[in-house]
Specification:
Two copies of one chain form a homodimer. Chain A is of the alpha/beta class. Chain A folds into three domains: 10-53, 434 Repressor (Amino-terminal Domain), CATH 1.10.260; 63-165 and 301-329, Response regulator (Rossmann fold); 166-298, Rossmann fold, CATH 3.40.50. The first copy, chain A, has 13 helices and twelve strands. In chain A, the strands form two sheets. A six-stranded parallel sheet of chain A has the order 2-1-3-4-5-11, sandwiched between helices. Chain A has a six-stranded mixed sheet with strand order 7-6-8-9-10-12, sandwiched between helices. The interface between A and B is large, with 62 and 62 residues. Chain A binds a DNA duplex through residues 9-11, 19-23, 25-26, 28-29, 33-35, 38, 53-54, 56-63.
Chain lengths: 342, 342
DNA sequence: TTGTAGGCGTTATCAA
DNA sequence: TTGATAACGCCTACAA
């Protein structure tokens, strides 16, 4: 084993087996070219020495690695881990490893990861960026590292992207509430700097307009972040209004927010959906596990991931690759939180 | 930039700047040894060529990498991502990158990751293994790659481990319910093959015994997995019993299970905590966000991660390192799901 | 202050 | 079938 300081190399194996270094390499890479007897001798030497191939050296020689990386915005958000699952499966099919890097909304950390990954010469980088306009997102591909943007879009054609139609998602959520007869609807989410927030709100406005209602039918409740506490807070603000003018339904920019809202409303004695119908967004597992199971806009999370991974892999391998902007369409999962009282 | 096929190397930079290769290296590693004028010339050449250090080559030369990896059981479980956060922070302090690898309960995937990481010569591996007895967990350290086992324990002294005292956790959960006066308590969880399930059950039994109650005061409701649907199912089984002999409280092996149980019980018209008090385990964020906020056993997740990372870093760097088995003590967070009716 | 040379571990080419 | 050798890109002695 590693009794001596350094790990066994092909050279050590060759010496131990009494063959040349080239032969050891052949055993590793073209075993059919080696006679059975020497092959066995070499394999035994490898076992005895605890030989482990040095991927670093292989890579240096080969010029590229066998890994992909996903720089994710928030590993604690189930949405992103589901996306990552899709990537893992696609990566496995291509015999690549996927490393997850959690930027956790910290710009410096994201930049540090991107830098390391580029230096590491990974085959490709998948990223849900903090800021889709970050220059690194163009620099990496310009220098040869394929980048695919996930769950965000950009107009530029410097890389592929895979996203979901948030305008449509916002629209179907609002349409659902309108069809149930709600005419005062709260839109809960923010800050508006987040593209998703803007797009979903835009979709909701389209639905309101199409229903022939005035824009004021939509009450925008801005939050500071998409978190449970912010959802609770929005609930408190909602309940502070006199019942007469209070919205009868709320659509939230994501499920986490919706869960916070639900908790506060039920805690304050409201009945969901009778007093307040609630729609979430993302359809995370906990949405259906809520005490009042949440109606939610579902995105094809696994597919987003696998498609994105396929795109980087293609870009890395196919010289004739051309960039693609994939846009998936979300759908609505109706549950008890909006069910029309029977 | 990368117009030509290959990425710019120090050699290219040297040629472009009209200096020798060693000078470029000095600019990179010992800038103070280079005159300002040449340094600027070199830096400009690097910028023009879009030079990116090849970490692979550095590593080969240096013999070790600047990365740590955490092979996690389930990236979708918030508990593990919180642990990972702790590791990230510790890794950052040591100027190391942390890669997350999600085995997702698949033994082949776990083995594949371990293999790749070893070949990649990472500085150290953190892992919550599917099977703590897996031979690879001893082989890697034997060959020189430090391994720290997280949230599991082993008797062997071949590596460090960081875990939480599950017997104690089970005990304080049960004690809390006993103190509230409950005398028929359901223990929900399984399969028993999972060490955590066994330990927490053992702790609960200790508490029951210490309270002077017969072992039969604890009703074990075995589940097939620690998931929301299994929690719901357990709820249905619980409710199927006649009220007279039905437990008045339930402690669950984790929060996810507890959330499922809560959902089903409330859905079937029970009042929590009046008809059934519920204690979860892990204190995930969604536990406090439940409609009836969940009492839960909290583990020092962040600390588990940072301590584990510190241990691998130490093992990788300090020749005098000796293995340590760290055991943290969990505590109880009391919320509405067990609050004594006022 | 700058340049030269050797080697990290692997693989592929070519010769024996 | 096997063996010797030259790269891959970088870093560090050491020499100039």
């Amino acid at each position: 084993m590693s009794r001596s300081g350094h790990a066994a190399s092909v050279k050590d194996v060759a010496a131990a087996a009494g063959v040349s270094l080239g032969t050891v390499s052949n055993v590793l890479n073209r075993p059919e070219r080696v006679s059975t007897s020497t092959r066995e001798r070499v394999e035994q030497a490898m076992a005895e020495l605890g030989f482990v191939r040095n991927e670093t050296a292989r890579q240096l020689r080969a010029g590229s690695s066998r890994t992909l990386a996903y720089v994710m915005l928030d590993a604690g958000n189930p949405f992103f881990t589901d996306v990552a699952h899709g990537m893992e499966d696609a990566a496995e099919d291509a015999d690549l490893s996927l490393f997850l890097c959690n930027s956790n909304h910290l710009p410096e950390r994201e930049a540090a990861y991107l830098g390391r990954l580029e230096q590491q010469r990974v085959q490709g980088v998948l990223i849900t960026p903090i800021d889709p306009e970050h220059p690194l997102l163009e620099e990496l591909p310009a220098r040869g590292t394929p980048v695919v943007v996930v769950d965000r879009t950009r107009d530029v054609e410097t890389h592929c992207s895979v996203a979901v139609d948030d305008v449509h998602g916002g629209r179907i959520a609002a349409e659902h509430l309108l069809e149930l007869g709600h005419e005062r609807i709260a839109f809960v989410g923010g800050p508006e700097a987040i593209g998703q927030v803007r797009d979903r709100l835009a979709g909701a406005r389209l639905a309101v307009e199409a229903a022939g209602l005035p824009p004021s039918a939509l009450h925008v409740l801005t939050t500071d972040a998409l978190t449970v506490p912010q959802g609770r807070d929005a609930g408190a603000r909602l309940l502070a209004r006199p019942a007469r003018e209070r919205p009868t339904a709320a659509m939230c920019v994501n499920d986490v927010l919706a869960l916070g809202l639900l908790q506060r409303c039920v805690g304050l004695g409201l009945d969901v959906p009778d007093d307040l119908a609630i729609v979430g967004y993302d359809d995370i597992d906990f949405a259906s596990a809520a005490t009042v199971p949440l109606t939610s806009v579902r995105q094809p999370r696994h597919l987003i991931g696998s498609k994105a991974a396929e795109l980087v892999i293609d870009e890395a391998g196919d010289p004739g690759h051309h960039h693609e902007q994939v846009l998936f369409t979300p759908d609505l999962v109706v549950r008890a939180s909006t069910r029309r009282p029977a």
